[in-house]
Design a protein that fits this description.
Blueprint lengths: L1 H76 L3
Length: about 80
């Protein structure tokens, strides 16, 4: 009976030691996935920021052009 208990304990320990590295690898995988997700989020935010900057710049220039045209019309109308 004692021999069976020792064998079972040794088998249990062997199974635990065999499975343990896969748990550690899973933790590393999750950690790396989170890092990758953070990097992708940063990249998306930078891309969006650049697009907003470009759109804002375009809108400002267009507004300035339209304002200049409007000012020119007013100037023409107020000429004596």
């Amino acid at each position: 009976m004692e021999r069976i208990m020792k064998t079972a304990a040794a088998l249990g320990l062997a199974v635990f030691l065999a499975v343990m590295p896969s748990w550690a690898a899973a933790d590393q995988s999750v950690k790396q996935d989170l890092k990758d997700a953070g990097k992708e989020t940063k990249k998306a935010v930078v891309h969006t920021g650049k697009a907003v900057k470009k759109g804002s710049k375009k809108a400002v220039h267009k507004t300035a052009d339209v304002t200049a045209k409007g000012a020119e019309k007013v100037k023409d109308k107020t000429k004596p």
